[in-house]
Amino acid sequence: MPLEGEWARSDVFRVLRDICPNANLDWPAMARQYDFDLASLDDPQGTVPITAWHAVFEHVADVLGDDATMFDLFNNVEIGCFSIFDYLFACAPTLREACQAWVRFSPIRTNAYRMIFEEDETGGYVEWPILEGRGEWRQNMFGRIGWATQQIELALDMQVPPILIELATTAPVSTSNFQKKYQGRLKFGAAHNRILIPTTLLSRPLRRNDAHLYDIILKSASSELDRFGQMESPLSRIANEVASNLSNGACTLPQIAAKLGMSQRAVQRLLEKEGTSFRKLSEEIRRSAAERYLRGTDMPMKEIAYLLGFSELSTFSRAVKTWFGVSPKKVRDSSGLTGRRTTLFAGSRPDTAEAAE
């Protein structure tokens, strides 16, 4: 398929297909339903739309009847399933350099976001930015956490390394072996999707490191970066910057344009080309984030209001009533909005009347 808009590598679907061979999964039907090219699963350079990348994971978990299974499925895949990206981590000199390689080369996996790695006095963390408005990402994130944790386990040669895992969504109804293994080290309803690593582990030499081999791996990854890194979605950059700055008050057009190193007019032109505006985009992101926080966490209302950039709880409550037609408490308590999650880049925004139905 053409590399247009927001995409992710399709090999994750191939892996999902191959580790669920006996499941009642109709991949041709899924390809039609979620609008991706079935042939891309076996194409080493294949991609799928980011909305399909999320939706298929939700679909498969639903068919399997187990909302925790992605943890186990991807915590047990073989190293190398995701090509060079696996070896960037496994063969790095240290855990710190492995995490840094993930960040540097994440554009070969998707153009919808960049991974984050930061350190403080206690340790470092690898974070996957929350993609507001691209459909439900919960099961996809469970799979990514299962896979990333396995990479850390194998790199350190530890069954259960002393890491902490935070997920910005609710705990699954089912219970996986992965959850049992990391009991007490796995927090749901957090503000981030990330893995926290103690400082003592970051400098640890990794047993698979070989300087010559790693040089070859880096050159191969750089070649892929030359191909895929040019396909960044400018709209994603804007949307993700807005989402990450909601709570700090730096979410106006001039401020976001400055952070992106773009002129205000350039941002406006790009958004106009995509059929939206800065006001509409930021409103959709707030709406999507509000629904996620209300339905996917037990955070207090005041904290959610703050995270969305509202200075007053009453202002937040009025905004929620406009978006969903009910109070924040009713959004949290209700199951009627489950299938109404906002998708920013797949169709126009429902107007206020529709949202209040």
From TrEMBL:
SUPFAM superfamilies to which the protein is assigned, alphabetical: Homeodomain-like
Transmembrane feature ranges: none
Superkingdom per UniProt: Bacteria
Keywords: DNA-binding, Transcription, Transcription regulation
Pfam families per the UniProt record, alphabetical: Arabinose_bd, HTH_18
InterPro entries: AraC-type_N (IPR032687), Homeodomain-like_sf (IPR009057), HTH_AraC (IPR018060)
Stretches assigned to the HTH araC/xylS-type domain: 236-334
Residue span of region Disordered: 333-357
Protein name (Swiss-Prot/TrEMBL): AraC family transcriptional regulator
Organism of derivation: Roseibium sediminicola
Biological classification of the source: Bacteria, Pseudomonadati, Pseudomonadota, Alphaproteobacteria, Hyphomicrobiales
